[in-house]
């Protein structure tokens, strides 16, 4: 009887072991065949993502059998809607649009920073603007309502004691896509613009405008505010936390490469931009963009709260003040783990 019991026990153990092995293989197979949907905007300020894609950092991190689908967006609002509705898993975007979306859906998390700053206030050369106070009665373009440059402009005007208006008693803010702003400045349809690089530098180089406020004087925090961040959907973090962590690593690799190999990075950024838009960019313009921002994977709750307050004060966030709680909007546990593994 003892022998029979022993044989049965061994058989059960072997069966369980085989079952566990089989389960492990199945899990690995599912993981290997995962499709990761990455979103990114067609802006040079998303450079860490561009380099990470061009150098295959995401592919290397996820594994050779994982499939990566990249979708490029013209604006952050469309990106925010896409990630909230599970059309995207992770991606790069400005804080403004996802802050707004988070308050609606609560299913997006910030998992790392990418870069800070990177926008300049440019005045049209012949508009008679020598200081910020000269913007009264003028028209200033921003890429989108509620976007980071828009909020920075409103903070800057507030600092100078100026108001936003729809007539000549204050500063009129209009929205134009960056390429359209370039044309509008040439045709004297707008007087100034607070715009992400390298568009500002392009206006300077062609003689259309002059820098009124440089990137490191733009509020908040004199240019040290998040312009591009890495976010992920709740669903992706829950189902593929390991892949989300690997995305944080790939983002860091992109940042490191740009800092350590700037000249080569300009080529990669241009190549990715061409792949996304059909047109590359001159290295001098890319350099101007990189020089006018701070590459960093770090981001804090204070950074988010500051931008959320600016958005709330501008009337973009249709919630009560007490509902502005972003403590769960940031999930920096992945970033902390990556840092500890150095």
C-alpha end-to-end distance: 56 Å
Largest sheet: 6 strands, mixed
Q: How would you name the oligomeric state of the polypeptide chains in this document?
A: single chain
| Proportion in helices | 40-55%
Low-confidence stretches: 1-30
| Number of contiguous helices | 14
Cα-atom Rg, whole angstroms? Answer: 24 Å
Query: Mean of the pLDDT scores?
Result: 90
What's the SSE pattern? HEHHEHEHEEEHEHEHEEHHHHEHH
Account of the 3D structure:
Helix content is 48%, strand content 18%. The radius of gyration is 24 Å and the shape is globular. The chain has helices at 2-32, 47-54, 57-62, 76-84, 95-105, 148-159, 178-186, 199-205, 234-239, 241-260, 262-277, 283-291, 301-313, 333-340; strands at residues 35-41, 67-73, 90-93, 108-117, 119-124, 139-142, 172-175, 192-196, 209-213, 226-233, 293-295. The chain has 14 helices and 11 strands. Mean pLDDT is 90; it is low at 1-30. A 6-stranded mixed β-sheet has the order 2-1-3-10-4-11, sandwiched between helices. The termini are far apart. Helix 2 (47-54) crosses helix 10 (241-260) and helix 10 crosses helix 14. The protein is of the alpha/beta class.
Provide tags for this entry:
342 residues; alpha/beta; 5-stranded mixed beta sheet; disordered N terminus; single chain; globular; 11 strands; 14 helices; 6-stranded mixed beta sheet
Summed up, what is this model?
With about 350 residues, this protein is of the alpha/beta class. It has 14 helices and eleven strands.
Write the layout of secondary structure elements.
Layout: H1 2-32, E1 35-41, H2 47-54, H3 57-62, E2 67-73, H4 76-84, E3 90-93, H5 95-105, E4 108-117, E5 119-124, E6 139-142, H6 148-159, E7 172-175, H7 178-186, E8 192-196, H8 199-205, E9 209-213, E10 226-233, H9 234-239, H10 241-260, H11 262-277, H12 283-291, E11 293-295, H13 301-313, H14 333-340
Parallel strand pairs: 1-2, 1-3, 6-7, 6-8
Antiparallel strand pairs: 3-10, 4-10, 4-11, 5-8, 5-9
Helix pairs in contact: 2-10, 2-11, 4-5, 5-13, 10-11, 10-14
